[in-house]
Every structure is written in C-alpha cells, then in structure tokens.
Amino acid sequence: MTHIKGLGKSVGIPLFGILTFIALAAYLYSSKSTAQDASNNSFILNNGTWEQVVLPGNPGGSTVRSLFGDDLTADDYGQTWIIYTFDGAANSYANPGIDGSIAQGQGFWMIQITGSDVEIDVPVDFPGPLVFQNAACSSPSGCAVLQLATRDNNATWNMLGSPFPNSIPTSDIRIVTNATDSICSSGCSLDEASSQGLIGSELWHYNSAAGQYDDKNAMGSTNPMQGFWMKTENGSDGSDPALLVPKAEDDDGLPPDPGEAGKATLEGIDSDGDGVRDDVQRWIVLENDNDLNLQNALKQNAKTMSLLLINSDDKEKSLLNMQNEIDDFECLHYTLGYNRDGFHSAMDIDDEIEAIFYNTKDRVKARLSAQKHAIARVGSENLSFEETIQKAGTLCDFSLN
After folding, report:
1. Lowest mean pLDDT among 117-126, 157-166, 195-204, 309-318
2. CA dist list (Å): 66 to 20, 75, 170, 244, 262
3. Helix and strand counts by DSSP (H, E) for the chain
4. Average per-residue pLDDT in the chain?
5. pTM, whole model, 2 decimals?
6. Angle CA 30–33–35, to nearest 5
7. I want to staple 48 with a disulfide (CB 3.0 to 4.6 A). Which of 31, 204, 262, 313 is the partner?
8. How far apart are the C-alpha atoms of 75 and 250, rounded to whole Å?
9. Nearest-CA neighbor of 190 among 162, 171, 218, 214?
10. Hey, is 226 helix, strand or coil?
C-alpha cells in the first residue's frame, strides 16, 4: 500500500507502480505528458502516462489482443505497453496477458511507451453493457451489477468503473447486500452504505493530468472510460455486496439529466462530447422536438456560450465569442422567419436558453466578466433587405432543412 494525496487528504490505495514493469514505472517519473479525452468510446493514451480505465460496454470474453490490438502492436505487449487489473480478494495486481480478458466494469491500469501518443478506442461493434432488473436499482431501465470483493477482517480495495458510455450521477448508484438485517439488503446509497460500515463512500479516480486522485462521488458523477478505486470495509465481509450502476432511463439518444452534478463546475457535463452541455441539450431537444432547424440553431448558440464561459478572462476570445453570439441570433431569427414575428419569437427563445444556460452564480459571473472587456461590434454593410436575409442564412453552421 502507498498513500497518495487526493483532495487534501491522504488516501491509502494499492501502489500502482508495478515492480515487474519497472522500466515503465521509471519512464513514468520522467514523463510530463497528460491525458486528453477523445470521445466517450475512446481516449488518448499519452506516451509514458498511466491511465486508470474501464471499458464502455460488455467485453463478453474479448481478449486484450482483440480489444487493443488495432491501436497497439500485440507482439509488443509487455515491452512497450501493458495492462494491470487488481484482484481485491487476493489484494494483488494481475497481468491478464495479451490473450487474457477483462470483465464488464473491471477497472485496470494501462500504459504505453511507444514514443508517441496513441488513441485507444473500443471496436465499433462493441456490445453495450449487460444490465439486470433489480428492485434495488434506481433506474427502470436496469442496472449493471458489479460484485465487490471482501476479505476476512480486512478492508478491501476494488478497482472498477461504470460500464456506460455516459456520465452517471453517483447519487443514483446503489449498494446491495444479502444481509437481511442490513438496510442495504434492499439497496442504499453510497453514503448510507458508508454510514453502516460496509464501504468507503469515495470513488477514487487517478487524474493523470493533475497527478492526484479525485473523488468522483464528491464531484457528483462518474465519467465514461474512467476507472476508480472503491473500498469495502470490514463490516461488509460475508454480505456479498454489489455495486448497482444504473442505465440512463432515456431511450431517445439524449444524455441523462446530470442534475446537481451538472452545476458543480463552470463547464458542466457534456457526456457525449458534442460541445453542448447535457442539461442544455436535453432542453433544446425535448422542448423543440418538432423543429430540427430550431434545435440546430440553439445548439450552435449553446456551443458559443460554452466557449464564452471558459474563455471569459481572455479579451480577444470574448470579443470573438460575443460577435459569434450576434451571428447565432441572426441564424436563429432566420430559422424562425426573418420578419417581425420571427424576431420576437427569436428574442423569447433566446431569453429562455440563456436562463437555462446561466443557471449558477459562477456562470453568471463569467458572463459578466466577458462583457466587461468585450463589446461586440455590429458592422453596417448597406445591404438590401433581401441580401440581409440571405446573409442571415449563411450564418448557420448547419445545413437547413
């Protein structure tokens, strides 16, 4: 065991610098690269960087070769890249080997030293997670059931993760046991299970960019392809505990409602990586489900507002983004009819999306910060009315239907 600082406290977790792979561990100390996200079904594995990973789906017996052999040379496994899982019951790491398999929801460490960054993705035909209906599950769509290891009179670490390709609010994750005298026999939250002495409520994910562990429970949600450590306490021994990770209820292709977790940071949660915050995307589609042009115009505007928030301290970028907001409004006006009624409709909808978007004090402050040092300029081009309408249509970054 080693102690690694995370969120201002010391967290005892199994050491991930594997002695049998000492060359890679040594390389890690000399590497300064950090991880980058690519999508919900892939990520960039930077050269010489350990990443704590989980697969977004059900491997179903797929081998390490079949999963990653298209991204990394299979013959070089153990030389320039390697994977380690963790056996909680044995309290030790395990190298599955190139022809070994990884289970659904099983977390693992992965590193490569090929000399360049590599995009790691899952096969296009990778099956979705296997889910079960369970009375303790918080979703009517079912839950992925991840069994937790325990040991006699010992706390036990488990390395696992959500097998879903979207963020999952940790408030919806449940612990269930077979102990009839436990409140968790019918399912309880992570915090409730912790108060009963069954688990540690923290879900520790190694943030390679920051070089520290982040508690995903404290942050409010899991993220796709991010594994984490979870500890079962002495009190869970013999109770056969399992982690129930809920499937999103929506079957309309939308990301799940992030709830309060979506307000925890300035950027919010964009689990499908389309540039539009999940809560905003859901509002756009669910409130305007019969007008694809209107949806696309609002998504265009939402992307600009996101850029405005994260660059609110940059004068030049704020100036550009505020000018783009004017262009976005012209596009919105065009989709609703470039006339007096269309203008008033566009104004009303623009007010609505801003109320949805700027829904925390920090987001309002960032907006005001951008406005302080950037005033959008509206140019006069002496266009005819017909030319003005034509130009408004060209300001949409999508094909109009």
Report:
1. 117-126
2. 24, 13, 31, 28, 35
3. 10, 18
4. 85
5. 0.60
6. 135
7. 31
8. 42
9. 171
10. strand
